[in-house]
Amino acid sequence: MNVELKNAIIAAGQGELLKFWDDLTEAEKSAFAGELAAVDWAQIPRLAAEYVLKRPEMAIPDDLTPAEFFPLAPATEAQAELYRRAEAKGIELLKNGKVCCLTVAGGQGTRLGFDGPKGTYPIGPVSGRTLFSYFAGAVARASEKYGKPVNWYIMTSPINREATESYFKEQNYFGLSRENVFFFTQGTMPAFGLDGKLLLSSKSSLALSPDGHGGTLLALRKSGALDKMISDGNEYISYFQVDNPLVPVVDPRFIGLHALENSEMSAIMLSKTNSREKLGNFCVSQGRTMIIEYSDLPDELAEKRNPDGSLSFIAGSPAIHVLSRSFVEKLTSGGTLQLPWHRADKKITCLDADGKLFTPAEPNGVKLESFIFDALPLAAKVMILEGDRAEVFAPTKNATGVDSAESCREMLTARNARRLELAGVEIPRKIDGSVDAVIEISPRLVLDDADAAGLVNAVGLKKILPGEKVAL
């Protein structure tokens, strides 16, 4: 280890990290030195002081107001015309190869009781096709429908990069061209003990964790993904998370409205079902759009009502965005990206003072993450469009219950049933209106309602029977 790096570590108050240095082999020393060199030691004391030794308090701006958004259904004829132009613009951009997809897929399936990358979790109600398979099929259909390959960028984490790539190879990239699928890895942050000291996972390694989905933007630059976007002419990035198979991988109206409004970062909002639904709230302060997390919004604001009785802070975030590539270039131009950090208290397996590995029963440390939505205030223009929850949002976070694999499959069936009904298929329903069948439609065949109508005509489907399991 060079003297400059050693002095930086000591100056940051983290000299204890080197207490086992003499126990290491030359190979271990070399690897550890490389890991330590990647840390920004100048900021470690500040992070410890501001986020670890004290718990950050969310300061709610005095001028906070609900963010404005375009409604799901146009409110005026002028707005209806804008939506028609936006749809046409989005289709034009897709046909010209200006749009790419970005899936954040760094998580594991632990909460689902699944051992492996979350994207490899089987979610298909009938077929058991995986989350990745859903998106791959939709990307392939969009490429076919609009006549241009849609590049697909997939952000993994250090713990699942290898397994994710291996899975795609096993599946022959789901029929997609290898050159149109780009994997990259998000950055990491060292974990802190509650005393502000960094933790070791071994004598030759820091306890590291992914730096959050806010790290996506910088990772795009460092990985060469931005360079590929530039060379391929991709100007707009359709961003979504791997646990939501209902999301449209490309939405022409959303993309087109982003472009027509000259937005740098746009977002889909969902009307919250209640004042405390676990969605971040779109807000505005000093002319800047921001998200205040549901846990940070004061009760008096969360419960505030409009004259008609509706919630004032109604716009919740499902983490669906369109970003202009030029915006990402601008934010990361110096090779760094300054977003605020968010603290998470965790049980972190690490070395004790004697160099023995232990797993705590209670939280013993702090992990810091950055969130993609914290880039919103940095955008010169933000556009927010209301989405239809039943059409775009079915997160798969738990095995059962709310936002679960169970509820996701039900929503996939409901969306498929609606599309088939629209195309003239008779759908069996229970007394409560829910679908009395299990219906799965291949995303490789159906991207939207028009595709569904074409499929129905092609196969001659007229009726689905009660209790039937149908895979199209």
Please characterize this protein's 3D structure.
The protein has helices at 3-11, 26-37, 44-52, 77-95, 131-146, 161-170, 216-223, 225-232, 252-260, 299-302, 325-331, 389-392, 405-422, 449-459, and strands spanning 65-66, 99-104, 152-156, 181-185, 188-190, 192-193, 200-202, 205-206, 208-210, 236-241, 265-271, 280-285, 288-292, 315-317, 321-324, 342-346, 350-351, 357-358, 365-369, 382-386, 438-440, 469-471. Strand 21, helix 14 (449-459) and strand 22 (469-471) form a beta-alpha-beta unit. Strands 1, 2, 3, 4, 10, 11, 12, 13, 14, 15 and 20 form an eleven-stranded mixed β-sheet that branches. The protein has a three-stranded antiparallel β-sheet with strand order 6-19-16, with helices on one face. It has a two-stranded antiparallel sheet with strand order 5-9. It has 14 helices and 22 strands. The model has no long low-confidence stretch (mean pLDDT 94). The protein folds into three domains: 3-42, no CATH class; 65-397, Alpha-Beta Complex (Spore Coat Polysaccharide Biosynthesis Protein SpsA, Chain A); 416-472, no CATH class. The longest helix has 19 residues, at 77-95. The radius of gyration is 24 Å and the shape is globular. It has 472 residues and is of the alpha+beta class.
Mean pLDDT: 94
| CATH topology-level name of the largest domain | Spore Coat Polysaccharide Biosynthesis Protein SpsA, Chain A
Give the domain tally: 3
- The CATH superfamily of the largest domain bears the name Spore Coat Polysaccharide Biosynthesis Protein SpsA, Chain A
Rg, alpha carbons: 24 Å
Low-confidence stretches: none
Number of strands: 22
| CATH architecture grouping of the largest domain | Alpha-Beta Complex
The fraction of residues in strands falls at 15-25%
Largest sheet, in brief, is:
11 strands, mixed
